[in-house]
Amino acid sequence: MKPTPIANSLLAALPHKDYQHLLQGLEQVTLTFGETIYEPLAPIHHVYFPNNSLVSLLTLVEGHLSLEVGLIGREGMLGVSLVLGVNMSPVRAIVQGTGTALRIKSARFMKEFRKSSALQREIYLYTYSLMAQVTQTAACNRFHVVEARLARWLLMTGDRMRSNSFYLTQEFLAHMLGVRRVGVTKAAGALQRRKLISYSRGNITILDRKKLEETACPCYEMVRNMHDPAPAPNPGPQTRNILERDSRYQDGLLVPA
Q: Is 14 in contact with 119 (CB distance < 8 Å)?
């Protein structure tokens, strides 16, 4: 049996042998709120697998304005561009929720990645779901109102942290949603008046998840269906079956026609 618990869903989905090989290069680290993991176009020295921490992917505009385009927790990893042959991050990665992660040096990770078809398979599946999240988030930021986007964002955060309570300042939320702080204040106030959340000095608690889901834009459900972190450790059977039936895939790799 694998050592338990394996909090990261991607690692937990690996066969015992593949996980053990990877484990030899992994070390546990603590990620602290506000800590920068990657900068745009900077080299990637380590790959991270969050356990109970949460990391936001931010795109920068004019060098200083930021907007969140992705959210990574225990369902995934940071550093997927390495498997695409690019040793730098396209975005800024900043810790949104304090917690632990497993970290491995990039060179060691790529060595294990090349040897393990199971690791390749899981990471390709995750990369697809992350791409879907990024594209859906871009559309969401353009077309949906702040209150619905805030509800979506709180639900996604709760899913990845396995908690209905977490700490976030209004200033940080404004950066994540790409709006002014007054917009966050208004949206959060509306959710509080409906008793969907409580919010005091940065401490947020989801009080009525069902109604919060009804308030959120459809993007939440769409992204969750792409890769729901709740049923850890395994990705959905539908995704696996599609790859197994598709003759273009051999050992988890896409084979050119």
A: yes
Q: How many angstroms separate the CA atoms of 7 and 208, rounded? A: 26
Pick the CATH number of 144-229 from 1.20.1070.10, 1.10.10.10, 3.40.1710.10, 3.40.50.300: 1.10.10.10
Residue 201 has pLDDT above 90, yes or no: no
CA distance 196 to 206: 6
Please state, rounded to an integer, the average pLDDT across all residues of the chain.
Answer: 84
End-to-end CA distance of the chain: 39
What are the tokens at 150? 């805030």
Cβ–Cβ under 8 Å, residues 152 and 220? yes
What is the band of 98 on the pLDDT scale with cuts at 50, 70, 90?
very high
Q: How far apart are CA 26 and CA 24, in angstroms?
A: 6
The contacts of residue 64 (CB under 8 Å, 6+ apart) are: none
Q: Check: CATH 3.20.20.140 for 1-143?
A: no
SS3 state of residue 200: strand
Strand segments (E) across 169-241 = 197-200, 203-206
* Burial letters 229-257, b for 16+ CB under 10 A, else e: beebbebeeeeeeeeeeeeeeeebeeeee
pLDDT value of residue 253: 38
**CATH 1.10.10.10 intervals, the chain:** 144-229
Burial of 197 (0-12, 13-18, 19+ CB in 10 A): buried
C-alpha 230, offset from chain centre: 12
